[in-house]
Amino acid sequence: MNTILEVRDLGISFGSNQVLKSVSFDLYENEILGVIGPNGAGKTVMLNILSGILKPGKGSVSFMGRDILPMSIVERTRLGFGRTFQIPRSFENMTAYENGLIGSVYGTGATERAASLKVPAILEMIGLSDRKGVFAGKLGLIDRKRLEIGVALASNPKLLLLDEVAGGLTESEVSDILGIVRGIKEAGVSVIWIEHVLQTMLEGTDRVMLLAEGRDVVCGPPEAVMSSKEVETAYLGA
Ligand SMILES: Nc1ncnc2c1ncn2[C@@H]1O[C@H](COP(=O)(O)OP(=O)(O)OP(=O)(O)O)[C@@H](O)[C@H]1O
Ligand SMILES: [Mg+2]
Predict the structure, then answer these.
(1) Ligand 1 cavity residues, CB under 6 Å
(2) All residues at 6 or more sequence positions from 40 whose CB lies less than 8 Å from its CB, including other chains
(3) What ligand is nearest to the CA atom of residue 36?
(4) Residue 15's CB: how many other CB atoms inside 10 A?
(5) Rounded mean pLDDT of the chain?
(6) pLDDT at 237
(7) CA–CA separation, 83 vs 150, rounded Å?
(8) Is there a single domain that holds both residue 176 and residue 131?
């Protein structure tokens, strides 16, 4: 198993609020790593550090052997990072297709013409082909989530960071999302997937990491982690 991402001793504080004390983990090529943890544990903060929105107070992150911490958000995107946001960020008064186009041009530096050749396959992958002309603001919640994933995919990532794409969905909609993420993995992408939904962790990941008290408390096979006493304690304590 080749390591694609190596995170070591990551820490960050906001004033006296020490959100991440020390987080270390490896992500393997073509792996889906689930991340769980109570509200406010620092899961989104960790993604923000990985994608370049926040600078950590300490620690190191290497992606395919390169130190990425000095790199800007755009540099990381071009290197192979894609991400979704907990609150969907697609442009509401643009169509699903146009959102994909912008994601591709911005994320890869492709011309609009080159991007226009790639977007249809992405819309197909996320199941939005028949709604490509609908304004993002007019899409239902599940389709907004699909589009979030699609826009992240448009930058042609090697690593996709998902922040709660299954929250608020019905069980059958969650199954749709699971199918999409599985397809993304089959296309050769590694995924870090933050989610509170149990079904996604048990059915959709290769390993699960618990983030709590600012640390990577436990990391391992989904069933073992989800039924561990560490997970029980973290959620009961919260
Ligand atoms: N830019 C910021 N400035 C100051 N504090 C911040 C900032 N971003 C996050 N925090 C704080 O960091 C802590 C962790 O927040 P974070 O959003 O990462 O939690 P989370 O694990 O994603 O929770 P949830 O499951 O509710 O999404 C919170 O106490 C939050 O207030
Ligand atoms: Mg969060």
Answers:
(1) 14, 17, 19, 37, 39-45, 86
(2) none
(3) 1
(4) 5
(5) 95
(6) 66
(7) 10
(8) no
